[in-house]
Queue: 2 jobs
Job 1
Amino acid sequence: MWLVAQFPAPLKGAPSSPRAESPRHNGEVNDAIPVTRAVDYGTAKLMPDVDRKRAWLLTVDGAPQSYVDLDEPEYLEFEYARRLGHVLDTVAEAGRALDVLHLGGGALTLPRYLAATRPGSRQDVVEADRALLELVAEHLPVPDGTGIQLHAGDARAWLESAPDDSADVLVADVFGGSRVPAHLTSVGYAQQAERVLRRSGVYLANLADAAPFAFLRSQLATYATLFEELVLIAEPGVLRGRRFGNAVLVAAHRPLDTATLTRLTASDAFPARVEQGLALRQFIGGARPVQDEDAVPSPEPPEGAFSIG
């Protein structure tokens, strides 16, 4: 699932008690009926955004997971998704098709984005919640010919069975409830990700933490054991320890286009900082890589950090 601490205000016009019915569309405005369904890991809701004709917010147990505009998949509502999108825009020349593995599915926001911005890309999406995948496929189907394949399964198990050197990009956006599962935080997991990526490949992860950043620092230390290049993207308020929030980790064996990333993230409605090099090494400090036997989930967010309304 996809978890976000930066999210829009409650969607205007959404009923407080959605009925479990299929969406209906009516021309110029999105007056579709929200959908509520029990899925494998909670209660999922699809809520229409009346300001955009075919746009939807997915929540699970009240926490925003994904926002998708079916008519404009290039539109990324959540700030963390925009930052991931900026990285995806810079990993290769514009429009070049990529082989991408997504760990975590949600409403398939980034797979749809890549299908639109990099047509011809081959994308595999692995989501542990089979019922959630079925809900999204039923109500927010991906058009034919997009190259997106959906798979229900555990992210690490799938990764361990994936072929060597088979992906240009690996996007990890996996949350169990509101926390990154422990088995996706260790050197053993990172080694599998590095194995599956091509030498020129790029690893991206959506993480969440707050000061004193024990989890985030340990994740950076973990990926520093395998990749020469590390980048961290987050809002200044998060990095200064003022609040709990999302951070995007990027790892690669080659230099990343941080100049373009800095320009793109600085121009967002909620600007972010791009940290690398010495500043990032200082941020990591004495943090140690995480071994499987020591792995723990990401920290529990404060009450209300991941909720709407």
Job 2
Amino acid sequence: MKENKKDIKNNGCEEQTVDTAGERTEQQDSVKAEAETKRDDADGKNDEEGKTVEDTASGNAEGAEEDPLDAAKKEIELLKDKYLRSVAEFDNYRKRTLKEKAELILNGSEKAVQALLPVIDDMERALANAEKTEDATVLKEGMELIYQKTNKIMESLGVKRIDTKDAEFDTNFHEAVAMVPGMGDDKKGKVLDCVQTGYTLNDKVIRHAKVAVGQ
């Protein structure tokens, strides 16, 4: 009887041990399955991240390939804009220059005319006074004053008389209107008389002096 109870107790312990081992096996299987699931999820996430990185790198590569073309187009537009601006500025400059040149040609004598206006005023006053007097000396003095004033104005404008007194004949300044023979060797090739005074403007001959030359 005691032996039967012992056997039953032993059988109960064995069953309990089997049950405990089974539970442990199930727990291990569950942990293993959960680990495998997490590993699969991690692998899937890594695959997705790798694909995203590849897509991003591919997009960047495509963008890098398009950048030179876009840069070239922008540079062409910039150069085109600069060219059009330069053409417009040059056209405006050309028109302005032509206008200023036309005004200069049309009104180039303005300064000279303004300088000579006082001389005209003096001439008008001299004519008015000539009607009031018959003294030739007074008229002569008035004419001399006007003449001197005119010469000063002409000099201020850069106009000078060409000197012909005892000068050697020079075709750059003189125009021979007469050749006078028999004046001696010392007068040969020299200006004997000035028929019309010559003038220079800023050292440029604007009228040759008409002279008689010894032959």
